[in-house]
Amino acid sequence: MKSYNVCLKDTAQEFTKKLFYSLFNCELEELHEDYLEKTFLEITSKLELENSSEIWSVFKTKLPEIRRNLDLDAIAFEKNDPASHSLAEIYLAYPGFYAISVYRLSHALYKLGVYILPRMMSEFIHGITGIDIHPGATIGESFYIDHGTGIVIGETSIIGNDVKMYQGVTLGGISVSKNFAKTKRHPTIEDGVCIYANATVLGGDIVIGANSIIGANVWITESVPKNSLVTYQTEIKIRPKKNGIRE
């Protein structure tokens, strides 16, 4: 029976937290620099990844751009959420921003050919926030998640700039066959789209056109033209009571 070093999960979680902290605090960046490199090499060595030192060197050059993108995300949060009081609140207390931060870090590693560690990072933050973003997904600038619990964004999803997404949204694939592993299985969401709670968008050929609004609880398996409004009609009726009993 083959043995797996599942204790790496704990190491990856601590690595993820310190990487996140370092990204926003210059003092911690210097303090954690040696730890992060040493731990990355330790994890990737046990995962039998080649060229780990070169990959880490390239990854470090990506950090300023990741921070720039996250600052744009934070501004989008402050702009779109009337409950926010300051940018500091976004960085310190918003689970959606935490999930996006770890996604952007893990995505950079994923693009460098590191696959298992980014998945460990994304599953760590999934457990904390309830937001499941595959590190292979492509997400543009100024991405805003409101609440966020239950959001699922699949590996081959493509999300444009200035997209807003609410809790329970799924960007998924119609087929789960392993034969489709190398094909685009998840939808494309163009710039300026807003997707409300519990909407489900399925399929690799599906495109939600720019500046469209997808209403709550809809189920979409065909493309939507730009500037569209998609809603779900309910049969809910509200009647007055008589003598305390609803008719």
Which descriptors apply to this entry?
globular, serine acetyltransferase, domain 1, UDP N-Acetylglucosamine Acyltransferase, domain 1, 6 helices, 16 strands, five-stranded parallel beta sheet, alpha/beta, 43% helix, 247 residues
Folded structure, characterized:
- This protein is of the alpha/beta class and 247 residues long.
- The chain folds into 2 domains: 1-130, serine acetyltransferase, domain 1 (Orthogonal Bundle); 137-232, Hexapeptide repeat proteins (UDP N-Acetylglucosamine Acyltransferase, domain 1, 3 Solenoid), CATH 2.160.10.
- The chain is built from 6 helices and 16 strands.
- The chain has helices spanning 8-24, 26-46, 52-80, 87-93, 95-111, 116-129, and strands at residues 132-133, 138-139, 144-146, 152-153, 158-159, 164-166, 170-172, 188-189, 194-195, 200-202, 207-208, 213-214, 219-220, 229-230, 241-242, 245-246.
- The strands form 4 sheets. Strands 1-4-7-10-13 form a 5-stranded parallel beta sheet. A 5-stranded parallel beta sheet has the order 3-6-9-12-14.
- The chain starts with 7 loop residues before the first helix and ends with a strand.
- The mean pLDDT is 94.
